[in-house]
Amino acid sequence: MSGHVLLEFAINVLSMGSLYALIALGLVFVFGICKLINFAYGEFITVSTYVLYFLGTFTDLPWPLVFLIGILSGVAIGFLSELTAFRPFRGRSLDALLVTSFAISVILQRIFQLGISPRSKAVPYPAFFNMNIELFGVVTPLRNILMIGTTAVLLIVLVIVMNHTTLGVAMRGASENFVTARLMGVPANLVISVAFIISGFLAGVVAIFWSARTGSVEPLMGSSPLLIGFIAVVIGGMHSLPGAVLGGYVYAFIANVLSLTLPTSVLSYRDAVMFVIVIAFLVLKPEGIMRGNYQEERVG
Amino acid sequence: MRSSMSMNKAPVTELTKRSAAKVFFENFDFSRKTSTVVFLIVILVAIGAFIWWLNIPFIEDIFTSSAITLIMALGFQLYMGNSGILNWSYVGYVGIGAFTSAIFSMTPALKAMQIPTMYPFLIGLHLPFPLALVAGALVAMIVAAVVAWPLMRLSDSVGAITQFALLIVINVILSQWSKVTNGPRTFTLGGTRLTTLWVTLGIAVIVIIAVYFFKESSLGLKLRATRDDRYAARSSGINFVAVRYFGYVASAFIGGLAGGLYSHYILSITAASFYMNELFTLLSMLVIGGSMSVSGAFFGTLLVTLARQGLRQFELFLTRSGFEASGTTEIVVAVLMVVFLIWRANGITGGGELSWFGIKRFLRIGAVKKEKIPKQKQQEEKV
Questions:
Q1: How far apart are CA B247 and CA B78, in angstroms?
Q2: Quick one: three-class SS letters along A152-164?
């Protein structure tokens, strides 16, 4: 029986980890280039989920189209927020950027509460999404397998784009050293916009699978993926794209192990344990598991 | 004597030529150091006394709660403004102070009734209100003192995420530790409201003095040096970790004090009252007022409070006319904050203090000495 338990555990870790890896990637794409910790990232996901909800509930569009528009809305909100809110802060202090992204997040949350509803809404999904399938004797919802597959495809595409296209090379250069990259003729606006667009795209994909798990959408739903993204990014390494992916899987692993091993009375403190791990990483190993182009930022 | 008032006697012949008021303005001079504190206290007490004289309970309540927020904002400014590090965890210490002082001030019988699950030894504790306030502040300070040392060497984004993570840890503990804080349920204090207008006003005055003189002290100066130029400060032999540590711990003390006042004002608290929303309010006050000065925290609180109260009335009006409008206040404040960050990153005060010298210069009265106030360097790193 233990083989089954192990396999079930592995599928859980892999599917959750894939989702978390995408969340973390979305954060790191922007952080790598702008050094901005984007607090509004969770709200990008919420926007996409609301689009899914509206299209799924009020129209008869086929599912692939609904998902596509959902993802595109993530792209749009990423691009627009950069254009309107973050662009004026080009070359300003990091704190100003951070506070702005926090303000954007609050603005979007209130707009959802005001314009849509403070209560949670059920997001409709095609039946096959939550269908249980049996895999080597382990029963799991199909969406978990889809999640792993989608992530694998996306990661391969991203690796190809980042390594073998001019844009990808420019972006990697910009995240390593923005000034030098500009001197080499990399257009700053383009690179930053593309970073936000990719971040929004990933938020759109995450929205599909995140709300498939919870089945609903509400104005404040963005905070939990955001926090997970933070943890994954810090553990994996804030300056490295592969690090973020790895961090996502490591987080899923730790979270699953904690859920299985911690007694129920302590389980409610799981988030506290996770964030203590985060603090420990930041103090002891701030570069994360994968170093990337981390530079020492500490004093004393 | 730089730090005391002095009044130079004007020659009598001068008096005959010019109005007495003008002579007074020209010659009355007290140093920049004390004038800020005096102005802020006079403004605060004047508003407080006026509102007490009006004797309208509704407005008195608004003033008391704003004065509590002012104390919170001042404590927030003490560390964040002087060190330049976004101190997310601050509201966590406010929460710790709020819960601790509430536990201390409630009578054992009341605690046994309200929170039956509480540890027996906590139920037995009882202190009078002023001591309970101090106890809350001390516990917040001790928690900060225990956890902060290793975190103090982190700056920039790493530092910000650490503080953010710490806030979440504190919040999870506050909201899950049922035997102390009643867990996710509401913690009701019962009894009468102990935080009155004059108590709050008195503590606010003390805190203004403390925060201002912290900023002007050698410790405060060192902390500001670490903010303005990391390399110059290090080469001057400033111990970053120690300087930041004392600032952080002092800030947690004031936060805990404000938390105690808050819980005895509002009389029912949950861990959720000390989380992102509260932090956002405090942050907006510092950003709009100018985080680098005590005057900035003061006027930021004043402005944001006025704006929030006005908008809230507007919201109520809209809701009564049939629109769903709750939340507009936060949107307006957030937009205002972004606008300020874009066009006036140092807030309305521009990072300076309200001072006698500044007023004289502004009104162009008298022979203004060629004393130049060094303009605070904006913390901007060109990408």
A1: 7
A2: HHHHHHHHHHHHH
Tell whether B239 is covered by a domain.
Answer: yes
Tell whether B232 lies on the interface with A, counting CB pairs under 8 A: no
Q: Which residues of A touch B338 (CB under 8 A)?
A: 85, 100, 103-104
Spatial CA neighbour of B226 closest among B165, B161, B152, B146: B152
Beta strands of B60-186 (E only): which ranges? none
* A126-156 per-position pLDDT tens digit: 877 777 877 777 778 888 888 999 999 999 9
Among A24, A37, A63, A67, smallest CA distance to A49 is for: A67
Nearest residue on chain B to A287, alpha-carbon basis: B158
Interchain contact B237–A (C-beta under 8 A)? no
Q: How far apart are CA B263 and CA B133, in angstroms?
A: 10
Q: What residues of chain A lie within 8 A of the CB of B152, using their CB? A: 300
Check whether residue B184 and residue B300 sit in a common domain.
no
Please judge whether B326 and A227 are an interchain contact, meaning their C-beta atoms are less than 8 angstroms apart: no
CB-closest option in A114, A286, A299 to B328:
A114
CA distance, residue B322 to nearest chain A CA (Å): 13
Contacts of A272 in chain B (CB under 8 A): 168-169, 172-173, 176
> Could you report the per-residue pLDDT of A268-285, keeping only the tens digit for each?
888 888 888 888 888 888
Residues 6+ apart with CB under 8 A from B231: none
Partner-chain contact B165 A230, CB within 8 Å:
yes
Of the three residues B274, B291, B314, the one that is the final residue of a domain is B274
Q: Please check whether residue B360 is in contact with residue B368, taking contact to mean a CB–CB distance below 8 angstroms.
A: yes
Closest CA–CA distance from residue A85 to any residue of chain B (Å) = 8
Please give the mean pLDDT across all residues of chain A: 87
CATH number for the A2-284 domain, one of 1.10.3470, 1.20.1530, 2.60.40, 1.10.150?
1.10.3470
pLDDT digits (tens, 9 = 90+) for B29-43: 566 567 888 889 999
Is residue A122 within a helix (H) or strand (E), and if so which, with residue range? strand A121-122
Contacting residues of B for A102, CB less than 8 Å apart: 280, 283
